[in-house]
């Protein structure tokens, strides 16, 4: 078998992902399978059949430690929370950097840091607060590279912390803490106070001085603020912390304590904890798909769960010496967490002809989830009999947990009683963004995101041509039933944005009953979704027993401010109408604008000249200030921008290319230390933002002039930026790698065009 046979001849995207992300140094597909499976024939067969895949770090790195590479096989870690002193705070920053350098994402909780205004015994007299140090951790995440991507970070805080209001509102400024997801720990006490509309106490006691900082707030007001910021900015996410702590195998183990969650929140972990991920592709356990005889193969599913649990334990043992920090090695050795999950749920239901979120779907998922958990616990018990239980395994305490009682048969319980467990944590549901895109299936527990996507191609004449690319499961169904248009699909082809949120929460809740860790979850909702709807969604998730979720509203400010979707047909283009290779000439009759930019290296001057009738960009001149960067680079960049504009490339395409140039470390450091840099994260990006700013000014001037002269001046109006209440589609966020639209699902931005994922 080769990669074409494995992924399909037409799945060029999948083959590109495999080659660029997981294939090592030109190895063949069979060599890759042998390396990644650990030379285990059973595991190799599951990989070939696409019934199970390890997480991304394992697929990319397993076996490469023998080549002298510094790698980890774990996707995610949780750092030991910083103590309330400056040494500990900066120590955690260094440990974040080291972990990122090995390829691991991190979670860190700041609930133990003093709130703003607390007395301290140094020259500052009082602390700037826990929130101020989030900038430090975000900066570290931005600076440390991971093979072409940046680190992933989750910062959390307790709902009773006095800085919680500032924490909730932090991400409403899209220039702050840009490299971290944030989540708030919501306790049962808080949620019950919300329901009763009662007061809730914010409090913190500083051990060093004995100072107690406290205040009373209306819990419903805090909850409303959480809903408002989620509605507009998709953060902070909600972690129902007591549910996290109570619904697992260690709920009765006094020596155990969760310290935080990983970047996509599917893995609550102890201090120094990490987790190895792997996912079962539910779609490939359906027999006779798209027919009246279709059914889910439970026997094969249980067999594969057993193999996958053993495989993840093998990887755990191999990876023990590879963790970046000693505290991580110690924690993993002591608790032995693995994270077996699912993907392809949306595809499975379509193959079975069942509507996602329906009573039938919930009942089936309940049955599958119980089978997975019971089988995984039995497999871990059998491994404990062969290799020994995890160090802190107290059998009686585990068997008395509500989670264990609800998810095991008598046969499995007897096995655990006799042998113990090899793992303290077994099950999770990760986003699987890149993996599911590679295979062409739905990710995690999400429904399919859309029935089709619009792709763009350019004709020989330079005209943008848009065409439909159907989601693979939709395309297969249409071919099997000779359907020519997606309007003829059955009603059970629901998608993320057409699904009622009650159904979406019902699906997450039923899976959470069988998951001892957590679920990476994003509820995608339409633009018409209200703040009140958002409050009701979170209350419903709490009542149904979910451990956490976040919301992404189509057209929210987070989408609109990052990049607005524009109709390029209405953008004035300097070289429009010329033949290929021709460049428009310009004279002195132009409109000039100037901007002084502050970059990581110093100052930069940007001059731009525009057509006096259309406002199209014609020419750009860049020069460094007395402390700026390389002048030859500036000259070269300005020449390329100018010739591109005069050759017929519109300003938005030029800016899009400038915005794809990445992050500059000096720029990041200056922004964090001085806060005076121009918008962007490197010189080309700052230039692009300045050009857009000047272009919009010119267009506004021309509009006003045209109004004065009653429309005598021929002006092609540029598209206005959408207002906050205007619908902006998922196309509003673009991939930094290929420039195509991103989708937000499973807690992660993912590109369906090139396979880029923020989370992998």
Automatic annotation (TrEMBL):
Q: Which reaction does it catalyse?
A: a 2'-deoxyribonucleoside 5'-diphosphate + [thioredoxin]-disulfide + H2O = a ribonucleoside 5'-diphosphate + [thioredoxin]-dithiol
List cofactor names only: adenosylcob(III)alamin
Q: Does the UniProt entry include the keyword Lyase?
A: no
Q: Where is the signal peptide?
A: none
Instruction: Please report the stretch or stretches of sequence annotated as the TSCPD domain.
Output: 592-693
Q: What is its EC number?
A: 1.17.4.1
Protein origin, superkingdom: Bacteria
Q: Top enzyme class of this protein?
A: oxidoreductase
Q: Does the keyword Nucleotide-binding apply?
A: yes
Q: Which UniProt keywords apply?
A: Cobalamin, Cobalt, Disulfide bond, DNA synthesis, Nucleotide-binding, Oxidoreductase
**Domain Ribonucleotide reductase large subunit C-terminal residue range list:** 74-551
Q: Name one GO molecular function term.
A: nucleotide binding
One GO term of the biological process aspect: DNA biosynthetic process
Protein family according to the UniProt entry? Belongs to the ribonucleoside diphosphate reductase class-2 family.
Its biological purpose: Catalyzes the reduction of ribonucleotides to deoxyribonucleotides. May function to provide a pool of deoxyribonucleotide precursors for DNA repair during oxygen limitation and/or for immediate growth after restoration of oxygen.
Which NCBIfam families does this UniProt record tie to the protein? Answer: NrdJ_Z
The protein's name in its UniProt record:
Vitamin B12-dependent ribonucleotide reductase
Q: Organism, per UniProt? A: Megasphaera stantonii
